[in-house]
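Appendix B, Record 12. Input sequence as logged:
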Amino acid sequence: MGRAKKQKLSIVKCIIAIFIGIFIIYGGARLFNCAWDAFVHKTPDAPLPSQPQVVEPKPAPRTETPPAPPAAKVEKPLSDKVPPAVDGTNTYSVLIDKSEHKVYLLDNDKKVAVWGCAIGLGGAGQKQKEGDNMTPTGTFVVDEIDDASAWTHDFGDGKGAIAGAYGPFFISLDTERLSKGQWDGIGIHGTHDPASIGTNASEGCVRLDNANLRKLIKYVKVGTKVTITE
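Logged structural output:
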């Protein structure tokens, strides 16, 4: 090859090499500028989304419902009807309230029946002697139960002896400790005069309507306690 031709090729190669170098330098500068801009104008990292805060629901205020007040206990009124008597029982006793003119049947000291009665003409107060027409107060026991259906009595009112004056039964009370032998003959019995029930009418005994006396007699025996109060 001729010397002139070799020189031309060398010149061309140099020019190509220069262009390639310029291209590389230019491209590198562009890449550097992009990288620099990215670094300088870097967008701050977006914060990670926070976990949603779980709010525990507040429990509803607890309202205590006060318990309902207990229903008032209603005492059933006593009646003249009583349960069937149990043979051989010792749980029954009798309470006589002079001021109320009432005879109560008690079962284990609980009132289970009540009847109206008449007491002595003397009214309130303790019996002191024979003929004072007072119904004694205290605790006594039944010492005798008599069939009085045939008995009569003269009340001294001019009517003479009255048949049926004591009703069907006479429940005799042992008053010896109180009377010390000075008087006797006090008991619970029926009457020929139902209108006297609820009043002071007798000579000291306790009168019951005959029908009620028959109810009471089922629960009374010798030894039954009888309490008479003012």
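The radius of gyration is 60 Å.
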